[in-house]
Amino acid sequence: EPEVTQTPSHQVTQMGQEVILRCVPISNHLYFYWYRQILGQKVEFLVSFYNNEISEKSEIFDDQFSVERPDGSNFTLKIRSTKLEDSAMYFCASSRDTYEQYFGPGTRLTVT
Amino acid sequence: EDKVVQSPLSLVVHEGDTVTLNCSYEVTNFRSLLWYKQEKKAPTFLFMLTSSGIEKKSGRLSSILDKKELSSILNITATQTGDSAIYLCAVGNNNDMRFGAGTRLTVKP
Fold this sequence. Notes:
- The structure holds 2 protein chains of 2 kinds.
- In chain A, strand 4 (31-37) and strand 5 (43-50) form a beta hairpin.
- By secondary structure, chain A is an all-beta fold.
- Helix content of chain A is 0%, strand content 51%.
- Chain B is mostly beta strands.
- Chain B has no helices and 11 strands.
- Chain B has strands spanning 3-7, 10-14, 19-26, 32-38, 43-49, 56-58, 61-66, 71-76, 85-92, 97-99, 103-108.
- In chain B, a hairpin with a 4-residue loop joins strand 7 (61-66) and strand 8 (71-76).
- Chain B is globular, with a radius of gyration of 13 Å.
- Classes of the chains: A mainly beta, B mainly beta.
- The A-B interface holds A 33, 35, 41-45, 48, 55-56, 58, 89, 91, 98-106 and B 31-32, 34, 36, 38, 41-45, 48, 50, 88, 90, 92, 94-102.
C-alpha cells in the first residue's frame, strides 16, 4: 500500500541554523500539507500546497518557513533560522483531493 | 475563529466496554470531518464524514456526523487494549484542516 515517507526521522540542530525536512507524498496525490505537533499538544496546520503554490497557510507559517516541490516526488519544508520553540514533530500529509489526508511518520525536530 | 473541541479529553475504560467520543466544531466553509487514531507517532486515518446522518462503520468502530448540531461522534464497541490511543477529530474547509486536542483513550485489560 502506498504511503507518505519522511526523512530524516529525527533531526537535531542548533538555534539559528537552517533545516530542511523532506517528504515524499503518495505518487498520485496532488495536495500536500505540513503540520506540526509540539510535544503533548495538538496537531497544528502549517501550510497546504497545490499546483506548485501555497494555497493556504496558518499564522505559524511566517517568513522563516518555506515549502518547495523541487522535483516530481519530493515536498520540502525549510525553516531558515530555527528557534527553540520550533522543536516539534513535523508531519507531512498528502491527498488526492482536498478530503482524506494521509500522514507520513513524522520528523522529530529538536532545536538546542 | 474556527475551532474544534473534543470531549472528553481523557477516558479510561476496561476491555469490552463501549465508548463514545465527541467532536464539535465551528468552522467556516465546512467540507469534511475526519477521525484519526494517533498511537506513537503519525495520525492514521479512520473515517471521513461529509454528509449528515450517514453512519460510517469499520469493524468495531463507527462514526456519524450531525451538521445541524455541528458535531460528530466516534463509537468503539467491545474495546480492546489495542484501541488505546489518542483519537483526533479534524475538520477540513477548502484548504486546511483544523484538529481538536484529541481524546486520550486508555483501555485496561
